[in-house]
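Lecture notes, continued. The same structure-token format from the folding unit now serves as the input rather than the output. Read the line below as a description of shape only.
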């Protein structure tokens, strides 16, 4: 099969969160199974060019229709750790991708509407006719809309779209100007509720809704979250749309690329280790302490890695720091916040805790440090308010770092409480789960984990081993995606 991924991220060259990991990992898996996979990405000025090999111009003069005129683009091609990627670089005063950021501009909806249009125009002009176009999140929600309403009449009638939603919270909202810019026009037509009109704001168009309505198949990144999005409040207003399109909607759990996230082969960590040599992990713990100037004492290290925002349960993350310190543990946090209030809050905490030898808050995005923390910590807290899949707990399991998670979304399908999970035999349990959003719930789970570490180290080690035995690679999800692609393919 010939598959083209159109996305706003691909790790490690463009990564703001799990989306980047998934786009890369899934592409690799599909390619390993003999399929032809290409990626189309924006050419951001701030991406990690050091992870691209052989960057060259592949299509010099791409003219993308925009607002009745055209925007001249160049398309570059390069290899990102073996994956063939096409990067779209527009030359216009809008400077869509030269902002020093991936997301967070006022005109993000225009930036990614343009990207979606340019990606399709590139496929059309370069005569690429994939069997499957795989789109991701709101940024590419307009791809299936434009494919169905415009590009199929220009010779792209056989392309089928799988649309994967990694986070329902950000849906891409715009007004009629989006229609005029992209050439979709026909305001009354698209402003109908069964097309792009937002379910709650009658004056707005919703990119993600468009993606759901027009794609051949739609999925989110865990079966449990698919259920939550339809019947709970985490669909952020799209539950009804999912209900209408339920026959083509499902959930596929994400995988982890074990060529990258694997303590046996990880080049970012000073000491590699495996299930049979877990004791070696202590050397990484030592290295982390040296690097972050933490005191070398017999205490567990509890970590948090992730974006610092409401979705991730920042209040509980904050509480976890102080609870860990009170209970005789060390705490390491690696996170970045886009919301300024949360950012200043954690900067304040960082300064306040500056001289404490048991804690380090690293407020940045640092891929290399993330690897070292996964390989050093004893436990990882993931107290999310909602979590479509969650990769941090999956990576932690592979690195023998016991996850302490809130039982929502993909977390509930991947972490099984050591003491209470009635559906798993004791030898299949791999972490700690709490359900409520209050600090007592978190404390009770942390207390059990820290208690086991101190009182029953042997049992704690069994728990680590049981976690490491789980296979959350792309093997199973790869099969699921392929059966969907097969099903929707012409
Ligand atoms: P989300 O996609 O909601 O941000 P996921 O758990 O699905 O959360 O994926 C998070 C990914 O981003 C993981 O690979 C994690 O290691 C990484 N990550 C998150 N924050 C940081 C950070 N500050 N520095 C380095 N890596 C980070």
């Amino acid at each position: 099969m010939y598959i083209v991924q159109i996305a706003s991220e691909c790790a490690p060259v463009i990564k703001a969160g799990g989306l980047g990991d998934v786009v890369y990992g899934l592409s690799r898996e599909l390619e390993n199974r003999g399929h032809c996979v290409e990626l189309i990405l924006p050419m951001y000025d701030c991406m990690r060019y050091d992870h691209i090999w052989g960057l060259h111009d592949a299509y010099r003069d791409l003219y993308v229709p925009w607002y009745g005129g055209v925007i001249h683009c160049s398309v570059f091609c390069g290899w990102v750790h073996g994956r063939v990627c096409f990067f779209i670089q527009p030359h216009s005063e809008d400077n869509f991708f030269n902002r020093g950021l991936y997301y967070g501009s006022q005109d993000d909806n225009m930036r990614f509407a343009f990207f979606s249009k340019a990606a399709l125009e590139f496929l059309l002009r370069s005569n690429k006719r994939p069997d499957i176009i795989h789109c991701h999140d709101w940024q590419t929600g307009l791809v299936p809309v434009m494919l169905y309403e415009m590009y199929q009449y220009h010779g792209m009638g056989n392309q089928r779209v799988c649309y994967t939603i990694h986070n329902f919270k950000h849906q891409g909202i715009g007004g009629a100007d989006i229609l005029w810019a992209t050439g979709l026009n026909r305001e009354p037509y698209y402003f109908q509720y069964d097309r792009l009109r937002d379910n709650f704001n009658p004056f707005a168009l919703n990119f993600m809704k468009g993606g759901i309505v027009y794609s051949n198949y739609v999925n989110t990144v865990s079966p449990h979250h698919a259920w939550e999005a339809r019947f709970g409040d985490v669909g952020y207003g799209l539950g009804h749309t999912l209900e209408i399109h339920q026959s083509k909607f499902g959930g596929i759990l994400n995988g982890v690329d074990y060529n990258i996230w694997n303590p046996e082969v990880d080049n970012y960590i000073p000491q590699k280790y495996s299930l049979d040599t877990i004791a070696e992990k202590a050397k990484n713990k030592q290295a982390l302490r040296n690097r972050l100037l933490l005191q070398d004492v017999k205490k567990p290290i509890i970590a948090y890695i992730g974006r610092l925002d409401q979705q991730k349960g920042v209040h509980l993350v904050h509480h976890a720091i102080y609870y860990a310190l009170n209970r005789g543990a060390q705490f390491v946090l690696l996170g970045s916040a886009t919301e300024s209030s949360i950012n200043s809050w954690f900067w304040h905490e960082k300064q306040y805790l500056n001289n404490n030898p048991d804690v380090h808050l690293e407020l940045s995005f640092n891929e290399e440090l993330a690897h070292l923390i996964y390989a050093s910590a004893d436990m990882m807290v993931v107290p999310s308010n909602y979590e479509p899949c969650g990769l941090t707990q999956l990576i932690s399991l592979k690195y023998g770092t016991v996850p302490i998670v809130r039982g929502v979304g993909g977390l509930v399908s991947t972490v099984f409480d050591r003491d209470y999970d009635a559906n798993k035999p004791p030898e299949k349990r791999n972490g700690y789960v709490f359900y409520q959003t209050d600090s007592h719930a978190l404390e009770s789970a942390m207390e059990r984990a820290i208690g086991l570490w101190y009182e029953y180290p042997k049992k704690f080690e069994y728990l680590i081993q049981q976690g490491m035995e789980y296979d959350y690679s792309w093997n199973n999800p790869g099969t699921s995606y392929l059966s969907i692609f097969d099903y929707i393919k012409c």
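Point for the exam: Residues 17-19, 21, 305-307, 334-336, 365-367, 370, 389-392 surround adenosine-5'-diphosphate (CB under 6 Å).
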